[in-house]
Amino acid sequence: MARYLAGRVAGVVLILFLVCLFTFIIFFTLSPDPAVMICGKTCTPERIDQIRDVLGLDRPFFTQFWTFLAGIFAGRDYGSGANLVHCAAPCLGYSFQTNQSVWQMVVDRLPVSATVAIGAAVLWLLVGIVAGLVSAVKEGTWWDRAAMGLALGGSSIPNYVLALALQYVLVVWLQILPFPSAVAFSDGPVLWFQSYLMPWVVLATGYACLYARLTRANVIDTLAENFMRTARAKGLPPALTLRRHALRPALTPIATIFGMDFAALLGGALITETVFGLNGVGKMAADSINKNDQPVIMAVTLLAAFFVVVGNVVVDVVYTRLDPRVRITAQ
Amino acid sequence: MTTTTLPPAGAPVAPATSARRIAGALLHDWAAVLGSAFLVLILLMAICAPLISAITGHGPNDFDSAAIDTDLGGLPRGSLGGISAGHPLGVEPQNGRDILARVAYGARVSLLIAAAATVLTTLLGVVLGMLAGFYQGWVDQVICRVMDFLMAFPALIFMIAILSSLPSGNRSVLLVVVITVFGWPYLARVVRGQTLTLVNREFVEAARASGASTGALVFKEILPNLRSSLIVMTTLAVPGYVGTEAGLSFLGVGVAPPTPSWGQMISSSVGWYAVDPMYFAVPGAFLFCTVLSLTVLGDRLRAAFDAGEAS
Questions:
Q1: Residues A200, A117: contact at Cβ < 8 Å?
Q2: What predicted TM-score, i.e. pTM, was given to this entire model?
Q3: Nearest C-alpha neighbor of B226 from the set B184, B191, B188
Q4: CA–CA min distance B94, chain A (Å)
Q5: Interface ipTM above 0.90
Q6: In terms of CB atoms within 10 Å, which of B19, B107, B152, B281 comes out highest?
C-alpha cells in the first residue's frame, strides 16, 4: 500500500509539473506582452523595461519557469533594492489587474466554489440515486419511462440556458426568489439559502439526470446476478434484498464517478458562477481569461488540475475499501 | 408452459447487427423518429440558410431599426420579442437583427464545428486506440500515458486559456483543433480495450496463421468488429461537441462576432433575459432540441445494438 501510494503521488507531481509547463509555454509563446498590458495607456519605454525587470520577463524561458515553480514552494522576490517585494511561500504571483496576491484571491474565493459544489452534490446525489433506484425496481412501468425520459431531457439542457430560464420564471415572472447576488451566511441563513438555491439546482440538474440513469443501469444489472437470486430464493423480502445485497455493488461505481465529478467542480463551476455572479474560483477564471490576467489563469488551471488529479488518487484508494474484490498490489 | 420456436436447421439466420434490423428498431421508436426528423429539419435549415434570408428579406447581420423601439432602450416592437410576418422568430433588441436568420446561420457554424470535431476525434481515437491495442508493449505505454495526461487536464479551463491567448485568426478551425486534442482519448480508450480483446480471439489468430498481412488483420478482422460501438460513440459525441462549442462561444472565446453561433447568441442575451425572454428562449430551445435529439438517437442506437448482441 505504501509503495502504491508513493507511486501514485509521484504520478500526481509529474502531471502537475507538466500542466504547469504546458500552460507556461502557451503564455510564454502565444500571449501578448504582459508588460505592455500592465503599463496601460500612459506608457513609456523606460516604464516597460522597469516592469520587465521586476517581473523577470527579460530572462530566458527556463529561468522564468524555474522562478515560478520555486515561488510556489519557497516564495520569491520581485524587483531589487528599494523596490523589493517579497512574496511568501505559496506564491502564485500578483494579479496584473488588481495587484492582489493570487494565492490570497484563490483562498478568498474557494469557500464560495465549495459551497456551490457541496450544495449541488447533495442535491444531485439525493435526486439522482433515489430516482434511479425507484426506476430500476419498477423497470418498465410508466414511472420508469417518465423518469428516464425526463433524465434524457434534463441532461440535454445546457446549464446556462437552464440558468436563464429559471431566473426568468422564478425571479422576474413569479417573483418567488430575489435577484441573485453574492450573499454571505452571516447576512442571514434564509437569504443565503435563497441566493444559492438556483446555482445549486442549475448545477445539479445535469449530474442528477446522469446519475439517475447510471444508478438504474447498475441496479438492474445487479438484480440479475446469481447472489440476488439466492437471496430471493431463501425468502428475504424484496426491500431487504435490495438494501442488504444490491445497494453496495450497484452504488460502488457511482461513488467513484462522484469523486471525479466533485473534484472537478471544486476547481470552479465556470459557467454557473459566471451566470449567477457568484464570486468563486470559476468566475475568477472567466474574468481573468477575459482580461488576459496571466498569473490568475495560471493559478486557476493549476488548482483545477490539482483537484482532478488528487481526486483521481483518492477515488482509487477509497474504491478498495468499498469493493472488497479489488486489492492493491504493488507492480 | 412455454415453447420457444427455433428456426429450422439450415434456415438463413439474419446477422445479429444488420443495418436493416437496427433501422427497423429505430423506426418503431417514436422518440428516435421524432429526433431524426428534427435533426433533418435543422440540417435543411442550415443548408438553406441563404434561402431563408432571401425569403424573409433579412440577412443574419442586417440591422432593422424599424423593428425596435428606441424609446424603450431598443426593445423589439410588438409582443414576444418582436415576432411578426417579416421576423417569424422575432428580432434582437438594440439592433433588430432577424433571429431566424441568425439561428439558421448559427446552425451552420455549430453543426459544422461539431461534425468536423467528431470526424477528427474519431479518426485520431480509432488510429491511436488500435495502434495501442494491436502493438501493445511500448507503443501502448506511450499512448496510454498521453491519454491519462490529457484526461487529467482541466479541459474546459485549459481550452479557454488556449483560445483566449491565441490570436483571433480563424476561430472555427481553432475550436475544432482544441476540441479534438482533448476529445480523442475518451474514444481511443474504448477502441484500445476492444482491440486488446479482439486481437486474441480465434478468428484473428486464424487469419494471422493463414498468413494475412497486418493491414488485412487490422482492416478486415478488427475494424469491422468495432463498427457498432464506433457508431454509438460518435453519435453520442456529437451532442457533446455541439454543447462544448456553444459553451465556449457563450464564455466569449468561441466564434468571433458578427458570425452568429447559438452559444454566442445566448451569451449576448444574458443582459436582456428579464425584459426580452424570447431573445434567449429561441436559440436556447434550438440548442436544447438539437442536443436532445442527438442524445436520444445515440441512446436508442445503443439499445438496438445491445439487443442485437443479446439475441
A1: no
A2: 0.83
A3: B191
A4: 19
A5: no
A6: B107
